[in-house]
Backbone:
């Protein structure tokens, strides 16, 4: 049984017995790395912009210079940040269980930098440049206000999924398959407001998985989950891994 651990024993038992664990992370898992979440006020220059107004194809078409400035500001901020104990705990957890699928809504590459492999990037990756016309991966000139595609001359865009855009097919398929198959689903650091990502927990629950969230502010789904661990992921996740490793 779990010793000296605030994680419910029954959850530790479920994790120990699990054949397959699926984890969904959101911006909260990078908060302790100093990366602002979507719902926190953006600092300074961006205080007057709502991320939902900037992370759309229409915003880009209306003002590609502004949108590129926002994404380059975020790229620099993330590049300066370091993965936190929560990211490292998830990477360590993958070594302790038979199978772990990590789906992230985050575009910050932090899980990969912490050593997680085969990360499913549900909303893409902020460090990628893609052709606005055909979505192909390109390498943009970082010195121009709006980089252009060397193949077709279209604008380049950051390689993220904007509001109103479909989730990459493979990421959606693999995430739904993992949520449907897993024995335990952990929803970590997400407000669970953005779909279809927020629907993965329901899919897991409908298929009989034990579902838990880790969030200092219980979400509106907390009541329908088996466990709602109220705490910071950088504290709760290392504790959860220590309990499992006993
Ligand atoms: C789609 C990449 C089908 C970009 C992101 C009208 C038209 C079209 C679609 C819609 C529509 N109305 C609704 C929709 C669906 C829409 C949606 O869900 N909107 C919401 C606002 C209602 N979804 C979409 O558009 C998706 N696509 O539906 O395709 C389609 C296609 C065409 C037409 C119609 C439908 C695509 C959504 C992807 C958007 N891209 N990111 C970028 O990063 O710039 S979303 C972005 O916001 C993030 O990736 C993330 O997913 C989301 C923010 O959520 P969180 O990660 O949860 O972050 P948040 O700040 O909200 O919460 C942080 C949490 O952490 C908090 O709960 C906090 O308490 C907690 N926390 C804080 N500190 C800690 C902590 N937890 C743990 N430890 C801590 N230390």
Residues:
């Amino acid at each position: 049984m779990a010793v000296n651990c605030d994680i419910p024993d029954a959850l530790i038992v479920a994790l120990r017995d699990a054949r397959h664990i699926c984890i969904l992370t959101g911006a909260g898992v990078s908060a302790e790395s100093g990366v602002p979440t979507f719902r926190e006020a953006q600092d300074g220059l961006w205080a007057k912009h709502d991320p939902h107004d900037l992370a759309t194809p229409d915003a880009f078409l209306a003002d590609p210079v502004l949108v590129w400035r926002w994404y380059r500001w975020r790229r620099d901020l993330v590049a300066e940040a370091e993965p936190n104990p929560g990211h490292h705990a998830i990477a360590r957890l993958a070594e302790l269980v038979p199978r772990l699928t990590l789906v992230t809504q985050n575009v910050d590459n932090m899980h990969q930098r912490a050593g997680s492999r085969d990360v499913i990037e549900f909303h893409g990756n902020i460090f990628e440049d893609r052709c606005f016309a055909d979505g192909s991966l390109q390498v943009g000139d970082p010195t121009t206000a709006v980089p252009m595609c060397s193949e077709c001359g279209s604008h380049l865009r950051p390689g993220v999924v904007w509001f109103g855009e479909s989730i990459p097919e493979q990421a959606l398929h693999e995430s739904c398959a993992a949520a449907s198959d897993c024995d335990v689903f952990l929803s970590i650091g997400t407000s669970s407001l953005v779909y279809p990502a927020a629907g993965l927990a329901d899919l897991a629950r409908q298929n009989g998985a034990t579902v838990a969230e880790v969030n200092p502010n219980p979400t509106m789904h907390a009541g329908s989950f088996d466990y709602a661990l109220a705490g910071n992921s950088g504290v709760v996740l290392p504790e959860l891994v220590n309990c499992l490793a006993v």
In short: The beta strands are 21-25, 100-104, 120-121, 124-131, 137-138, 156-160, 184-188, 210-214, 227-229. The chain has a mean pLDDT of 94. The first strand starts at residue 21 and ends at 25.
